[in-house]
Fold this protein.
Amino acid sequence: MAAARRVLLQVLLCLGGTYAALYVLATLLLIAYKSQAFSYPQDRLLLDLTLLLLTAALEAARWHCGTKGNLTETELPLAASLVLTVVSSLLSVYFLLWQTLVLWADSVLSATLLVLHGLEAILQVVAIAAFIS
């Protein structure tokens, strides 16, 4: 049973990592579209692009720590990945609710990423508890 949870977590980490890369690319394209099609304040454009780059870096670090912690069955990298998941989720909420212009596509992309983060976080907590005991 424990091995099945680790495999499920690894599958979710791979799926989440792939989706995060596509999410960053799609969000970048949406920001480019919004900056051309709508009046997008330059200071807000810079903020949104900076937060998107931060999201990309956090997602890469989160995926690396989560995969390393799961495959080596160690708590520290998995706990670091869990913390990064929370921070990345907050950035996803920003892109879902608080960015300058939120399109329907932004909402769908961010909500899907939040669902994946939630599932990963639950399995990470279960895995950390299993590794400790």
Summary: The chain has one domain: 2-132. The first helix runs from residue 2 to 37.
